[in-house]
């Protein structure tokens, strides 16, 4: 898919869902074509986790629903 299509968002959402369903981080394998993409995925996941840890329950529920 072309740039801006939402690939990183979708992959990170799937990783987040796997973690919430009980998968251990070392059980998740995400493969990308570039180190840059892997770094972007890692950064986005860390940002989301930090943001979610500080969110109130209503906002957290909304954000998690958006991500499936």
List keywords for this structure.
68 residues, mainly alpha, 3 helices, globular
Structure characterization notes:
The protein is mainly α. It has three helices and no strands. The chain has helices at residues 7-20, 35-54, 57-66. Helix 1 packs across helix 2 (35-54). The longest helix has 20 residues, at 35-54.
Strand content: under 5%
Overall body shape = globular
Which series of helices and strands comes N to C?
Answer: HHH
Count the helices. How many?
3
Gap between N and C termini, in Å? 21 Å
How is the secondary structure organized here?
Blueprint: H1 7-20, H2 35-54, H3 57-66
Helix pairs in contact: 1-2
Q: What's this model, at a glance?
A:
By secondary structure, the protein is mainly α. The chain has helices at residues 7-20, 35-54, 57-66.
